[in-house]
Amino acid sequence: MSEVEEKGRKSSEESTDDSEEEDSEEEPKLKYERLTNGVTEILLKDAASCMTVHDKSGEHVGICSEDGKVQVVGLYTREGFHEIFDCPIKVVALHPQFSKSNNKQFVTGGNKLLMYERNWLNRWKTSVIHEGEGSITNIKWRANLIAWANNVGVKIYDLSTKQRITNVLRDNTSLRPDMYPCSLCWKDNANLIIGWGSSVKICAVKERDPTEMRDLPSRYVEIVSAFETEFFISGLAPLADQLVTLYFVKEASEHMEEEFRARPRLDIIQPLPETCEEISSDALTVRNFHDNECRDYRLEHSEGESLFYIISPKDIVVAKERDQDDHIDWLLDKKKYEEALMAAEISFKNIKRHDVQKIGMAYINHLVEKGDYDTAARKCQKVLGKNMDLWENEVYRFKTIGQLKAISQYLPRGDLRLRPAIYEMILHEFLQTDYEGFATLIREWPGELYNNMTIVQAVNHHLKKDPTNRTLLTTLAELYTYDQRYDRALEIYLRLRHKDVYQLIHKHNLFSSIEDKIVLLMDFDKEKAVDMLLDNEDKISTDRVVEELKDRPELLHVYLHKLFKRDHHKGQRYHERQISLYAEYDRPNLLPFLRDSTHCPLEKALEICQQRNFVEETVFLLSRMGNCRQALQMIMEELADVDKAIEFAKDQDDAELWEDLISYSIDKPPFITGLLNNIGTHVDPILLIHRIKEGMEIPNLRDSLVKILQDYNLQILLREGCKKILVSDSMSLLQKMHRTQMRGVRVDEENICESCHTTILPSDTAQPFSVVVFHCRHMFHKECLPSGAIPGVQFCNICSAKRRGPGSGILEMKK
């Protein structure tokens, strides 16, 4: 049994430790400091029982005591009030605007609530607001509302109507009111917070509906929130929509050692209608806290600054909301450097005690200590910014711990940059351990960051040990490029057959450097090399390229072939050489070349084609040279292809060729079939049919004859169709012309005779006259026309000289 209890005790202790660790991760909402400036010395000899806090407008203070004395004293004037009562006075409260002449009012609380007002005669008038319910222990005045607490409960008095508007009864009557006094606090002009014992109530003062008033006050109070707390309340204060509560913690165990007795707590809570939610809780170590009771603590607050004063007999502690500096302090204490840095960057205008860069440096130091070098290096970009001295210090630190690679990719490389020695140190580090990383840095870093010659020498030194290392060679070429030694870079690129060689040549206009390296370029990539050479003929002539490639005919052919494709007339002096190059390396393109070239020597081409027995090319050359009969003979004898022979005859359209073709085919049935199928549109098939020997078997003769007949019928149909279309169009045009010529022609005084050039109409139209108007719209006086050769037929003198046709006909107008 005892073992179980011991285990249970240990587990509870462990869970308590865990909860404390979790609580410690929550950031406190308030910070604390003791009120000094002589207060500590005063409290060593005396004890504080109450305190008031006011803003700059407070010019008077009210004082009362157990012996009945009441004083109202002006801090900056001599005016005041002095009175001695015959009973203890527990509390006094001044009008919130007491300094104004029309607000000279205050109330005192003893066994009755008395109101003092100064009248126009400068005398104090006294009136009793309330009495008969025991001693009044607390008064809070806000605007026109006075709240006070006695042994029975809390009342609110409305000065504007001079009526008491509520009575909030005390809940726990078993607690002595002198030991657990009531705490009052106005949140604003209409909300009162009441704390008594362990009970909290929030009361809202509201206007009553005029229809419900009758004999009731114009205002009423509604309790909007009421809940119980775990400890006894010593003071209350508002904080936005939350509450700051000062608790007196009374331990249940009487045997607890004195040093472990509970300290007072200052909590921030969120009130709800029937309960509350704890936001934060702090235990306060005030002097002599183990001797204090609930009545010994007070909580006062300053509305304008969110300051909270915790008063105890021997100590006064000030609590205030934590600012951004405090938040950063807490984050740094918890080693949450990244959050601290982010908070400082966001609020850099508001922080006073911290510096963004110093926080960032602390974060980098923390990351380095953890061994997270990459993150530390990445943060350097943000933290170090433009401070080159800090950058150099960090680089040397990373070198000391052997992590130069981590920081290399984050170094400044723009307008702001470090000394060249820093970059060279890092490049040497990579060159010793990582060729690929070294090459990456050379590609990424501008060449102005470091001394190029120094790095070139270092790379050459390493190449002596490993002369074929492709990474080092490529990097060396890039370094030569940065140093504008392009010829050296070009040699390396060509040796490596690097893809950037053509870009290098174009970018830096290195055509003069490649005149003796054309073969190397062609061996690397024929297509790119030829395109580059042809695009830059003005820089490297065709003759120069041909000279360089004369010992590599296969490469020469590629170059000349592309040259010919671009322009048939360029390189015409090399067309004779191209015949043999095509015959050797590219026969499929030989025939197109022979067709397109106008500078090719036909005899030389024929000789080469005959030597190599290129029948199709030979046929083309023979036909081009005018020897069509020999060409046709080669097709029939060498190729034995009747279709090609027929096609050749069609192209030449020569009757003698057709005769030769028929004569050659007459004893070859397959040739006859081919001719019968294709000859119909060019030669009369009867000529072929009559020459066929009787009894000769011809394949597919019937089909061929049927096809001939069908072709003939098709030709007849086409002719008839064309004839109908022609007749229809002729009739349509004739009718159109007839309608046009039958239209009337307007003749007026503006028209003239084309012969005598006088007005066509006479000045006296009453006299008879004759006018001749031709269809060409030329007009004449009848007497101005010569008599025609054909009686009754006349023609326009002007148009008949040019043509004779329908437009020269006549229209005669007589009157």
UniProtKB/TrEMBL annotation:
Pfam families: Beta-prop_Vps41, TPR_Vps41, zf-RING_Vps41. Signal peptide: none annotated. The keyword Transport applies. This is Vacuolar protein sorting-associated protein 41 homolog. SUPFAM superfamilies: TPR-like, WD40 repeat-like. Plays a role in vesicle-mediated protein trafficking to lysosomal compartments including the endocytic membrane transport pathways. It comes from Alosa alosa (allis shad). Residues 1-32 are annotated as: Disordered.
